[in-house]
Amino acid sequence: MPNNFSKLTLVLGGARSGKSHFAETLVKQSGLEQLYLATSQAYDSEMQARISKHKHDRGEGWTTIEEPLELSAVLKSECRPDRVMLVDCLTLWVTNLMMADRNLEKEFETLIETLHGLNGAAVFVSNEVGQGIVPDNAMARAFRDHAGRLHQMIAAEAKTVYFVTAGLSQKLK
User: Fold this and answer.
1) What is the mean pLDDT of residues 113-118?
2) % of the chain with per-residue pLDDT over 90
3) Is the pTM here over 0.85, yes or no?
4) 143 closest CA partner among 130, 131, 132
């Protein structure tokens, strides 16, 4: 792993902030093999189009794994010193866990344990959803709270954390 590349990086930002592009650039600059772990699921044609555009915009040189739930298992099996895994994104993963009625506290704890023994570098992308108004329904509030807790947990473990707004990155840690 290059000396200037963090083993664990978190990139946060709002929708269409440029966070994914920024994270992809970080991974490309590492010089290591590029692995993309997509947590999204295409339930409709609009989401299918988004996924296709994302793949096209990433360009050549990426191996893509699509896994909506078993993030820790993929990290354990696929991370190694000669590659960087980009996980895009944590908030979709939280949504998937909630919709599958999984135990989020247990899933988050398993992810943190996995990060402690990670055998390669990983860059996590996630939507910062806690800066707006308080949602008007219980599920949306629970989602916001789960995402916020997960971000704090990952940020505590990460060597490097960025916040991206309007395509501009700010290094927080």
Assistant:
1) 95
2) 79
3) yes
4) 130
Q: Please determine, for residue 8, whether its predicted confidence score (pLDDT) is greater than 60.
A: yes
Looking at the chain, the whole-number percentage of residues with pLDDT higher than 70 is 97
- The number of beta carbons lying within 10 Å of the beta carbon of residue 97 is 21
Range 8-171 has CATH code 3.40.50.300:
yes
Question: Which uninterrupted H or E stretch holds 11?
Answer: strand 8-13
Would you tell me how many other CB atoms lie within 10 Å of the CB of residue 57? Answer: 10
SS (H, E, C) 66-121: ECCCCHHHHHHHHCCCCEEEEEECHHHHHHHHHHCCCCHHHHHHHHHHHHHCCCCE
**The one catalytic residue among 54, 56, 116, 146:** 54
For residue 151, indicate whether it is catalytic: no
Secondary structure of 123-143 in HEC code, one letter for each residue: EEEEECCCCCCCCCCHHHHHH
> Is residue 39 within 8 Å of 122, Cβ to Cβ?
no
Angle at the Cα of 171 (from 167 to 124), degrees rounded to 5?
Answer: 75
pLDDT at 58 over 90: no
Average pLDDT on 126-137 reads: 90
Which residue ranges make up each domain of the chain?
A: 8-171
- Decide if pLDDT at 5 tops 80: no
